[in-house]
Amino acid sequence: MSQHDNLQRFLFDGAPVRGALVRMDGAWQQVLARHDYPPAIRQVLGQMLAASALLAANLKFDGTLIMQLHGKGALRLAVAECTNERTVRATARYDAHIHDAPLAELLGEGGTCVLTLEPKDGEPWQGIVALEGDSIAAMIQHYLQRSEQLDSRLILACNDDTAAGLLLQRLPDGHGDPDAWQHLTVLADTLRPDELLGLDAHDILHRLYHEEQVRVFEPEEVSFACNCSEQRVGDMLKLLGGQEVAEVVLEQGSIEVGCEYCGQRYVFDEDEVNALFGMDVIEAVRGEQPRH
């Protein structure tokens, strides 16, 4: 296991509070290696990636947690995903002139955040997150309080090397001192970004809670992985329809689709497109085109 690509869950023995820490070096570098993101996008995606990993730590099913920001400003779309297997990926679409600005300004008016729980078996569930607060952390805290009546404290940080975060949550039916929540969150708020990014989980927990009884679970490895495949791209082309796909192939000789997450390129030539649609769709569309 990489020392600095893991998620560490923990529980306070003397208070109804659970927590998790995540630090991603290699996984975050894998995301950045595939796109030359400007600083404003790196900050948003790094924090979203850490937040998605922390929220996915409590998933009770096999599947994926997907966090999406949709905007009409310079930031059009930002997506971060984490699976129950602790694999992560992220991508963004944005205007070329984007610059550092508060999140609300980057998204523009009408920006939204959507959290999707996508089980491998069963129907997905979506929740709309109000753009409250001036940060991704504040936005998610408001959402957890309103949707799940769950008091939470989320602290996120990222730089060009590391994406990291700390999540505390008050358990509704807990044990120990019910009034310890404020004390534990006040301590969490003393954690500096450089400490969150530079220290491992053991050192952070000692720095914050050395006077508390903290039960620490086995760390879980976090890694970059993309689930794109030729079959998934083929399914997407089927949704576009044979007519549209065939027209592109006739114009360009093939159709090429790139994965926005990992950069993998998938190319389908005439024979492959015909096989995809189970018919000679290329010849059918060629016969429909006007002769000059």
Write the layout of secondary structure elements.
Elements: E1 5-12, E2 17-24, H1 26-33, H2 39-56, E3 63-70, E4 75-83, E5 87-94, H3 103-107, E6 112-119, E7 125-129, H4 136-148, E8 152-158, E9 163-170, H5 180-188, H6 193-198, H7 201-209, E10 214-216, E11 220-221, E12 223-224, H8 230-240, H9 242-252, E13 255-258, E14 265-268, H10 270-277, H11 281-288
Parallel strand pairs: 5-12
Antiparallel strand pairs: 1-2, 1-10, 1-11, 2-9, 3-4, 3-6, 4-5, 6-7, 8-9, 13-14
Helix pairs in contact: 9-11
Explained architecture:
The chain has 292 residues and is an alpha+beta fold. The protein contains eleven helices and 14 strands. The strands form three sheets. Strands 1, 2, 8, 9, 10 and 11 form a six-stranded antiparallel β-sheet that branches. A six-stranded mixed β-sheet has the order 7-6-3-4-5-12, covered by helices on one side. β3 and β4 (75-83) form a beta hairpin. α9 (242-252) crosses α11. The longest helix is centred in the N-terminal third of the chain and has 18 residues, at 39-56. The radius of gyration is 22 Å and the shape is elongated. InterPro entries: Heat_shock_Hsp33, Heat_shock_Hsp33_C, Heat_shock_Hsp33_N, Hsp33_helix_hairpin_bin_dom_sf.
Core attributes:
6-stranded antiparallel beta sheet, 14 strands, 11 helices, 292 residues, 6-stranded mixed beta sheet, alpha+beta, elongated
Task: Kindly summarize this structure in a few lines.
The chain is built from 11 helices and 14 strands. By secondary structure, it is an alpha+beta fold. 35% of the residues are buried.
